[in-house]
Amino acid sequence: MASQTICLTKPNIFRSCVILLRSISSVGMDGMGSITSRSPLERMEFDNVVLKKLPLDPSEEPGVRMVRGACFSRVKPQPLKNPRFVAVSSPALALLGLDAEEVLKDPLGPEYLSGSKIIPGSEPAAHCYCGHQFGQFAGQLGDGAACYLGEVKAPADQSPDLLLENPCGRWEIQVKGAGLTPYSRQADGRKVLRSSVREFLCSEAMYALGVPTTRAGSLVTSDSRVMRDVFYNGNPQMERCSVVLRIAPTFIRFGSFEIFKQADELTGRQGPSYGHDEIRTQMLDYVIETFYPEIQQAHTDPVERNTAFFREVTRRTARLVAQWQCVGFCHGVLNTDNMSILGLSIDYGPFGFMDRFDPDFICNASDNSGRYSYKAQPAICRWNLARLAEALDPDLPPERAEAVLDEYMPFYNAFYLANMRKKLGLLRKEEPEDEMLITDLMQTMHNTGADFTNTFRCLSQIPCPSEGEMEEDSETVKKATDLLLQQCALLEELRVANRPTMDPRELSMLLSMAQSNPALFHMLSDRQTVARQLERLARLKDLLETNEEQLKAKQTEDWTCWVTKYRKRLARECEGESDAKAVQEERASVMNSTNPRVVLRNYIAQNAIEAAENGDFSEVQRVLKVLEKPFCSQEGLEQPGWVGRGGVEEQGERDESGEGGEDEEERTQESAGAEARVFVPYDSKPPAWANEICVT
């Protein structure tokens, strides 16, 4: 190419500068803007592999429909009016290589992260799946409100620990609440502020607790509104549409493989892709190759590979539910469509962390039978694994699946016992009687109505017996007992908690029917449900015949007995150890990093929700900071900065949209006659008003 000589006279210099400026303004400004002023979200690098690997619905027609022979459908997220951030999670956004402060300052941030504006490189789609809901096959479900945006390549400097169970090096991002999809059924594809606050906070709380989970990067609300009947009582209200950015290696779930199911014997429903066995094999290959590469590489025989895959899913699921049990977490809707193929906590709806320990704890007010109660979770997860195994047949032969399912309870028991030993500070020895010590602890907590989280947190303050000290040392045992008694329920609390949830007339009718017409009885109820109601009645009768002094004496006796056993076991921890003080310090350190100081109790979430609904987002942000470090106290973050039903104690970051006045007036009218709430530290037992909270 011939070189060109430019004469640098003054006119030519001037002309050259003009040409340069024009070229910058016409071409270069866009190019430079892409480097300097582009939205940080536009710099994310997408590689949307799943849409290339799995069948995509050829139809793009709007509206709800049955989707056959496809795993995803393209969708168009529906924009929100005036979207704005409620909060963002810095650690979650860092997975995508994003800086939280940059995202917050980005004027396009709320639009991009609510689906109101499409991020360059993203390909919005909704995932098709089925599910067994409350034990019945429901047919096609799918992403009715969630929208896949794409898969973002992890930054090159991402911690290897974060990629241990995400070997593909990509993070799938979703916006939940972005509008209608082919799978919205009778709904509108929207989520409201209260449910979005709960999902956002719980996703990040679980991660900080060390429980495998999907993540939440941001929470956006808006001036768009939808009608919701919160308690299904005929009193609907308009609520703000809100969107959570969800992050995970994949959102494929057990129900993803149920789209190939033949007609169900009970419901008559079948999966929309029944007969497309080649797609099931294709999806199984994709999941194993992408997320379980070590299994793919270790097996050349497909049956052996698929069996190893199912065993690993079984192991991860057992580990997950063991961790739930150990932090007092109840999912609430453990349908097969809410079970992650990676063993992650997914789809946070009517979840709940237990306050007062009760093995029959039900967090979902819609779960009348207690199918998804706290104590039922381990067995339900095994049941769901069995449905996954059925969905994988014949790629996974039934006899191979059954053999793996037999390993589930041993997996679960091993994980649970290991976690519980850490929670009790039993670190040096594994004694056969440890299981009974743990069982006795849970029974004592139940009998005394002890707070689950705080009781475990207190145990690190019970010292190992020092040299020459008797395990039964009365002063030490009394101090420990007094400490634990502070976490026990009062008589009236226990009476309220043990009231039957069934109307006495209904219970009487069912008892009569069980004798006279067993077939009809089994259509309307079951023996387990009735037995649970009778147990509550018996406990309530005992409590009504007890006074406060008698209750306190019984609680003291129960805890004194258990603390004495515990101290005997701790004495064996110190046997052969020259430095008992070092043993105690190590115990306390491990226990205080295993037993959280604070969890997302319902009243903490509810207080943050009410603040946000009144236009004050600071309490959501404050709770997020507290939950990011659940094992330690943070100066200045000991208690809420906003308390409802009594006015705002501290005004934080308010919603300046100009549309909060109507809500505020309504909320004031609603709570005008209610008692003012008082400050309760985040790490305390719940206040009395927490009993009023109903989550469905």
How many extended strands? 12
Q: How far from one another are the termini?
A: 73 Å
**Rough shape?**
globular
Q: Whole-number radius of gyration?
A: 28 Å
Number of domains: 2
Individual helix count: 24
Unreliable stretches, pLDDT < 50, 5 or more residues? 1-36, 646-652, 658-674
Class inferred from helices and paired strands: alpha+beta
GO molecular function, one term: nucleotidyltransferase activity
Pfam family, one: SelO
InterPro entries: SelO
Keywords: ATP-binding, Coiled coil, Magnesium, Metal-binding, Nucleotide-binding, Nucleotidyltransferase, Transferase
Protein traits:
44% helix, coiled coil, 696 residues, disordered N terminus, six-stranded antiparallel β-sheet, alpha+beta, 2 domains
Structure write-up:
It is a single chain. The protein has helices at 10-36, 49-53, 90-94, 100-105, 109-112, 193-208, 277-291, 293-298, 302-327, 377-392, 398-405, 408-424, 434-448, 452-458, 474-485, 491-497, 504-516, 518-524, 527-544, 548-573, 580-592, 602-613, 618-628, 660-671, and strands at residues 72-74, 84-88, 125-127, 130-133, 136-140, 146-153, 170-176, 191-192, 215-228, 237-248, 329-330, 352-353. It is built from 24 helices and 12 strands. Helix 6 (193-208) crosses helix 22, helix 15 (474-485) crosses helix 20 and helix 22 (602-613) runs antiparallel to helix 23 (618-628). It starts with 9 loop residues before the first helix and ends in a 25-residue tail after the last helix. With 696 residues, the protein is of the alpha+beta class. The strands form 4 sheets. Strands 2, 6, 7, 8, 9 and 10 form a 6-stranded antiparallel sheet that branches. A two-stranded antiparallel sheet has the order 1-3. A two-stranded antiparallel ribbon has the order 4-5. Strand 9 (215-228) and strand 10 form a beta hairpin. The protein has 2 domains: 46-411, no CATH class; 451-576, no CATH class. This is Selenoprotein O.
